[in-house]
């Protein structure tokens, strides 16, 4: 079958009501019977989960599970930014005049990604990561920095897949999909944490209560099924770890890079 045909099938299935139906089933008691099969299919380490697998009330309850304490240590150096999620890096680099270049062959504007926020100007020549969470990964999202929440926005949108096919063959899915955007102010500068919904993701949820000030590694939100986090750093704020590249896998709490000294 041709790529246009697959793209058409994806367009037809990527409706919010489809994800809502999937989400409703995943939250139902009936979905409990699929937890063990789901974990086996995706190679999920059930021994890392905070609770025994039989204690989870639904597939969604298991999917949004917390981990046992200590399994994701936060990097001790306070000058370092930490990964907010367990993920694969599918995009990394400098923002060039407001443009993220060549994420799986496509370019994105910061203006579009941030829903034309006035804060767009802060990131015109900053730095970005695109972090993809597969179904295998731990799906809670943590703060990459210590700082105050300046602003948050829920952007309604599509639920296209954000896997290899979606990023490469669907039109600019990161800026067309539903997004939850959080702007956080650190003493070194501003960071935008853009949580991007995806196919079969019924919602992206903030933790409750959501504090006004976050510590590095503190829980911020969670995905119901796999998706992507885009991290945006303000101009002249951040330098990435030298060994990170496309395809690198990172764990929540792991060092991503350092804050730059202000001149």
Please describe the structure with a list of short key phrases separated by commas or semicolons.
alpha+beta; eight-stranded antiparallel sheet; three-stranded antiparallel sheet; 7 helices; globular
Structure, explained:
- This protein is an alpha+beta fold.
- The radius of gyration is 18 Å and the shape is globular.
- The protein contains seven helices and 16 strands.
- The strands form four sheets. It has an eight-stranded antiparallel β-sheet. The protein has a three-stranded antiparallel β-sheet with strand order 1-16-14, with no helix packed on it.
- About 3% of the residues have low confidence.
- Its EC number is 4.1.1.65.
- Keywords: Decarboxylase, Lipid biosynthesis, Lipid metabolism, Lyase, Phospholipid biosynthesis, Phospholipid metabolism, Pyruvate, Zymogen.
- This is phosphatidylserine decarboxylase.
- InterPro entries: PS_Dcarbxylase (IPR003817), PSD-B (IPR033177).
Class by helix and strand content? alpha+beta
Q: Percent range for helical residues?
A: 10-25%
Assembly type:
single chain
SSE string, helices as H and strands as E:
HHHHEEEEHEEEHHEEEEEEEEE
Mean pLDDT: 85
Q: How many whole angstroms does the radius of gyration measure?
A: 18 Å
What's the helix count? 7
| Largest sheet strand order | 11-7-8-9-13-5-2-15
Parts with pLDDT < 50 across at least 5 consecutive residues: 5-13
Note the overall shape: globular
Distance between the termini: 56 Å
Largest sheet: 8 strands, antiparallel
**How many E strands?**
16
Strand content: 25-35%
Protein name: phosphatidylserine decarboxylase
EC number: 4.1.1.65
Keywords: Decarboxylase, Lipid biosynthesis, Lipid metabolism, Lyase, Phospholipid biosynthesis, Phospholipid metabolism, Pyruvate, Zymogen
Enzyme class: lyase
